[in-house]
Amino acid sequence: MKIAVYLIAAVLFFFGFMFVVGAQGAPERFVVGFILFAAGGVLIYLTKVQPQYTEVTHVQKIDLSGDVQLEQMKCASCGGTLDKRNLEVKAGAIFVECPYCGSSYQIEEAPKW
Known about the structure:
Blueprint: H1 2-21, H2 27-48, E1 73-74, E2 81-82, E3 87-90, E4 93-97, E5 104-106
Antiparallel strand pairs: 1-2, 3-4, 4-5
Helix pairs in contact: 1-2
């Protein structure tokens, strides 16, 4: 895309130069030449100040303290066995979709006190 903009700017500069050189006392040709020069300069300026987009990847790691035991998860509706393929994180909450009954709900952790 930048190459095309630079080529268009070069064409504008060329025609601007031709109008200024060929003005021969005609002020309207002189003005058109400077407008073409300005248009080429604006194109180059806008191409250079265009924001550069970068992709940022955030990795969140959780460090659990103490002894953590993995429990088997069961569906709250039908009691079917669930595994990690049935879990999905949406908007920071963990949702589960049961492959047996098709129900979908958010996992809520019971308080430990």
